[in-house]
Structures are given as structure tokens and as C-alpha cells.
Amino acid sequence: LCITETCPSCSVTVLSDQFSPNTTSDVAAGMLIPHIYPDTPIHRQKQWFQETFTYLFAISNSAEASEAGIHLVSGWQIFKSPPKEELPFWSDIVLGFRPMSEAELQKFPQHRFGQAFTTLKCDCPPYLLWLEKRLKATGTQMYTRKVADLWELHREYDIVVNCTGLGAHQLVGDKQLFPVRGQVLKVHAPWVTQFIRDGDGLTYIYPGIHRVTLGGTREKGSWSLSPDAGTTRDIFDRCCSLEPSLQGAQDIEVKVGLRPSRQSVRVQREVLSQGGIKLPVVHNYGHGAGGFSVHRGTAKEAAVLVEECISALQASSSRAKL
Ligand SMILES: Cc1cc2nc3c(=O)[nH]c(=O)nc-3n(C[C@H](O)[C@H](O)[C@H](O)COP(=O)(O)OP(=O)(O)OC[C@H]3O[C@@H](n4cnc5c(N)ncnc54)[C@H](O)[C@@H]3O)c2cc1C
Ligand SMILES: O=C([O-])CC(=O)C(=O)O
After folding, report:
1. Contact partners, residue 172, CB within 8 Å, separation at least 6
2. Which of 14, 97, 179, 281 has CA 20 to 30 A from 78's CA?
3. Alpha helices in 80-221, H assignment, sequence order
4. Mean of the pLDDT values across residues 83-95?
């Protein structure tokens, strides 16, 4: 979508072996709370988050909000001991960030410190469908196809944009990319309206427009997409200990996703070369646990890299004509 906006003269085709609702992005809670990528400079992460927040805030404040599944949500991030950094880098981007009051902390007797703020949440499957609809409206073609090798695309396309998430492990042999398995529950509990996140990142309660997401797990290196019944009970118990009213939650659905994790998100231009033929590629993958939080920012950066590829192609074709 960003490419169609940045380079309106391009013809864009989306190839994917799975579409919504069968992607990692469909499993995500979709909360806008950044996760740190240790090898990406903080100012770049902050810019990605700022752009994503601004973009989604505008949607949440439009007539499209309910169809797009974007809404504001207020709540608490709580800690058993105060975090090293009292002010995270994103504290001035979310709304109304402040330390929790003693009265608020009384709700969480096991926790000693907390941050209250308002952020945005994407209800992921509706948001993905809304994006697909907007993309189709630009004339973009979408085909179900698994790509085994980027070179199979070079006859049909001038530039390849690789946003295959964990699929890049196999597709481009990126050994720096690894799965972090996450199991979550989606439940009916419409009375829960505040989010609660334990700062250890393991337990969270995220109310969406229709369902509440209860999490979670972080299992580094696990490729299993099968739900685990013991983990489901453990997640439910952990969430009930933070929000006892969840004992009355109904209609529990279990989902598993593999976070496409890496020390840094790979937003990068590369020119592949084989037997004198060149194939420009823009990578945009490795968003780990924070893909929703930074998706618009990384997509905008990738679209600029596509623009650069187009300029390079135009320059080399005019050189060839001379
Ligand atoms: C349990 C859980 C909770 C999460 N909660 C949050 C949250 O609250 N906030 C947040 O910001 N992030 C969250 N995330 C992280 C977020 O889900 C990911 O960062 C994001 O979904 C990654 O998106 P992606 O488009 O890169 O990957 P994907 O959604 O996996 O999409 C990749 C696409 O590429 C296709 N593909 C792959 N390989 C090929 C190939 N060879 N040929 C053709 N197509 C291919 C796939 O079919 C798929 O359609 C969560 C993740 C999990 C698992
Ligand atoms: O940690 C969170 O708050 C939710 C999330 O992004 C994840 O589970 O990956």
C-alpha cells in the first residue's frame, strides 16, 4: 500500500502462499507498544513507531475506525520491580503516559510500580482485510503463490519486495532470523476495557473491539504451531490473577504464532546478481514481537528504497540507450 502511495506509476502485485486469516499477523494482539530491536538505532525505531502511531491514530479518529478494527485503549503496564529505564523511548508518543498512582497499584498487590497510558490497538484480522480492500482498490493484483527462490520472479518483475516474515529464513537463507513462539487466547469478556501488561512481557490482557486477547508465551527457537493445553491453562490462570473477573470469560479460542525475530529489522536494499543479470530486492522483514507497532514506519522506509531502485533502473536504462 505504501508503494502504491509513494510510487503511483508502479504496478504492484502481491504474491503470498497464505493470506489473512492464516498469517502470523492474524494471531498478533496488535497492541502499539514497541519491542526493542537491540541492533537497530533507537532513533530509527522511534521514528517507525511515531509514523505508525500517527497513521493509526488518524484511522481511529475517522469513520473507517470500526471496519479497520483500530481503536484507542487505556491501561497499565505493571512491574514487580521498577524497570531500569523509567521513561521508555516511546513514552512521548503514546498518550497521557504517567506513573501509576498508589491507588491504581492497589489493584495489583504483587506489583510495586506501573505506567499508565493510552495507546492504539489493531484488531488484526479486520485490519488486514481492510488493508487488502484498499490495496485492491488501487488495482493491485493478489495471487496465492509460494516463492521458492527470488530469481523465479526476475522475468516477470523489475523489483522484488521481500516481506515474508519468518519465511525469509528459508527464502533468503537468513540464519539471523529465528522463531519466538507465542500462544494466546482470544476470549469473550466485554466488561474488560482496560489493558494490563506485566512488564516482564509474559502476561497480558488486551481488550479489542470484539474479543479480549490473553497472553502469552515467548518460546525462542520453537517452530511448533500446535496449541498446548497446559499452556492454555497457565495463560488463563496468570491473566485471572491480574484480572480476577476473567474467570467469567466465555468462548475461549487458542491461537499460536511464530514471531519473525531478529536482532534488527531488515529494511534494506540489495541487488542480486547472477550471470550478468541484476535483480533489485528490497527487504522488509524480521519485525519480531513488534510488527504492528512499527509496520507503517518500516513500510514507508521500504517504499523509499523501492523509489531508489526505480531511479537506479531508469538511470541504467537511459545509459543503455545512449
Ligand atoms: C502471539 C503474538 C502476539 C503478538 N502481538 C503483537 C502486538 O501486540 N503488537 C505488535 O506490534 N506485534 C505483535 N506481534 C508480532 C507481529 O505479529 C509480527 O511482528 C508481524 O505479524 C510480522 O508480520 P509480517 O508481515 O512480517 O509476517 P507474517 O504475518 O508472517 O506475513 C508474512 C507473509 O509472507 C508469506 N510468505 C512467507 N514466505 C513466503 C514465500 N516463500 N512465498 C510466498 N509467500 C511467503 C506468508 O504466507 C505471509 O502471508 C505478535 C506476534 C505473536 C505471535
Ligand atoms: O508483548 C506484548 O505486549 C504483545 C506482543 O507484542 C507479543 O506477544 O509479541
Report:
1. 150, 162, 283
2. 179
3. 102-105, 124-137, 168-171
4. 94
Note the ligand closest to the C-alpha atom of 292.
1
Determine the distance separating the centroid of ligand 2 and the alpha carbon of 320, expressed in angstroms: 50
Instruction: Determine which residue's CA is closest to atom 6 belonging to ligand 2.
Output: 289
Cross-strand pairs, 204: 197, 215
Give the gyration radius of the chain's Cα atoms.
21
Q: Which domains does the chain have, with CATH numbers?
A: 2-321 (3.30.9.10)
The band of 84, judged by pLDDT with boundaries at 50, 70 and 90, is confident
What does pLDDT average to over the chain? Answer: 96
Q: What is the 3-state secondary structure (H, E, C) of 176-212?
A: CCEEEEEEEEEEECCCCCCEEEECCCCCEEEECCCCE
Coil vs helix vs strand at 292: helix
Q: How far is the CA of 66 from the centre of ligand 1 (A)?
A: 22
β-partners of residue 16 are 144
Residue whose CA lies nearest to ligand 1 atom number 34: 164
pTM (global) more than 0.90: yes
β-strands 178-188, 219-220 pairing: antiparallel
User: What would the grid cell of residue 226 be?
Assistant: 500446535
Contacts of 246 (CB under 8 A, 6+ apart): 187, 189, 192, 205, 212, 214, 236, 239, 240
What is the Å distance from ligand 2's center to 63 Cα?
28
ipTM above 0.90, yes or no: yes
Best of 24, 37, 204 to mutate for ligand 2, by most ligand atoms within 8 A of CB?
204
Q: What is the pLDDT of residue 322?
A: 64
* Binding-site residue ranges: 24-25, 147, 164, 204, 259
